[in-house]
Amino acid sequence: MDKIMVRIGKREVLVVLLLLGPFFLMLSSCQKKDSAAEVQGIFEGESIFVSSMVDGRVDCMKVQEGQILHKGDTIAQIDTLMMTYQLDYIKTQQETAQTAGVVSPSIQTEALQVQITALEKEVQRISRLVKEGVLPQSRLTQITTQLEAAKAQKAAAIQQVQKKNSGSLGGSESLDSQIAQVKEIMARSTIVAPTDGTILTTYVHEGELTGAGRPLLKMADLSTLQLRVYLSPEQLSRIKIGDKVKVYNDMGGKDDRAYEGTVSWISEKAEFTPKNIQTSSMRSTLIYAAKVLVPNDGYLKIGQYGKAILPPLNDSQRESK
Q1: Under 8 Å CB-to-CB from 132, ≥6 apart: which residues?
Q2: What CATH architecture applies to the domain 36-46+221-320?
Q3: Residue 244 near residue 279, CB atoms below 8 Å
Q4: pLDDT by residue (tens digit) across 139-175?
Q5: What is the rounded distance in angstroms from the CA atom of residue 283 to the CA atom of residue 291?
């Protein structure tokens, strides 16, 4: 009887296992599906090119690759000798125009003023004589006409001198504008760092010729790097901008370092997986690019591989699926 019970017990266990097997497999699949997901990517930096704004020879290159710069630090000095000569020439022209071009109206009309003064005295004298009946009225009219003519001649002379002076001053103002332009070019000949960062690559050396718009170097702020990862539609529902995720740099396994990153950007458009990231299971899958900001402790490098650990689905996300 005991042997029969044992046999029956084994059969029951076998039946139970056969019945519950699919349930355990489904449960295991759900747990695996809802577990934390790992996505791989490459660390990037926001690099900028610093270019020359003027043509000329690089007189001095004060930086080298790997050097840390702060905003406003001098990077290079472009030759300004020709600009200095041009500035001196324009200033000489301006001084000549200011000393020779401007004329005093009183000097130009001095003779006319002497004539007007004499005629005014003559008008007063003849007026007395006309009142006394010594001279006729026509004589007074004649002298008065001469006085008015002299005054009109003086006014015309003053207007002409003022017009001439205005042209001279206008030329001086034009030279002021040229001086300001040359000074601005000379100021731009000193190349400074537009922001804080580390020099990644230099493209010119001291003594070489450069031109406006030609890059002198490339620099980037390495204090914070971006891990660019790619998310499948299922993984996209796990995170949003501003979420914190665990990030690891790829140092070959046991030497991987852990960081806390912040999701800063998620693409609104799907794309095919890039060749340098794709796996055999994702080659034909449309994915979404995302960026994770990671504070750099000095061990993270641009171009280095890394991975981010996405959090598992929560209850509401799991139910929506």
Answers
A1: none
A2: Beta Barrel (2.40)
A3: no
A4: 888 888 888 888 887 887 777 777 766 655 555 667 7
A5: 21
